[in-house]
Design a protein that fits this description.
Four Helix Bundle (Hemerythrin (Met), subunit A), mainly alpha, 0% strand
């Protein structure tokens, strides 16, 4: 059976993978490599879904981990955590809707959505790794 730290590290790995795939997928789209873009973003959705499974499993199986720091470290942590949590709620919708629009050939709508949705997804992926670092490796 996996322990809390292993599940948390697994979640962080999926977030790092999602971050890299998001950057690669955007690069492929900008280069006009639309088939490559579609494949990369499909894998990004899968890695984000795997993150969600690992994250939810940890919350079901273990007590929530509390940040051990205080003072300025706690302020920095909360400044990252709060927008991360709020924006993370939008990511499943954005990712799935963007995929649907792209596959349906509704490229204008796809571009409108990802113009703001891609940076949100990227922010959530990056800050997820930072939150993991604060909780498991950087307490004051």
């Amino acid at each position: 059976m996996l322990d809390d730290a292993t599940l948390a590290a697994t979640s962080a790995v999926f977030n790092v993978a999602s971050t890299l795939l998001l950057v690669l997928g955007r690069g492929a789209a900008k280069a006009g490599l639309h088939d490559r873009h579609r494949k990369i973003m499909g894998v990004a959705i899968v890695t984000s879904a795997l993150f969600l499974v690992a994250y939810a499993s940890r919350w079901v199986a273990f007590e929530p981990r509390k940040f051990a720091g205080d003072g300025a470290a706690r302020i920095v942590y909360l400044t990252i955590l709060i927008p991360h949590m709020i924006l993370a709620m939008a990511v499943p919708y954005v990712a799935l809707r963007a995929a649907f629009l792209g596959r349906a050939g509704r490229l204008e709508d796809h571009v409108k959505l990802v113009r703001w949705g891609w940076p949100v997804w990227l922010f959530v992926s990056i800050t997820g790794v930072i939150v993991y670092g604060f909780l498991y490796h950087w307490p004051a």
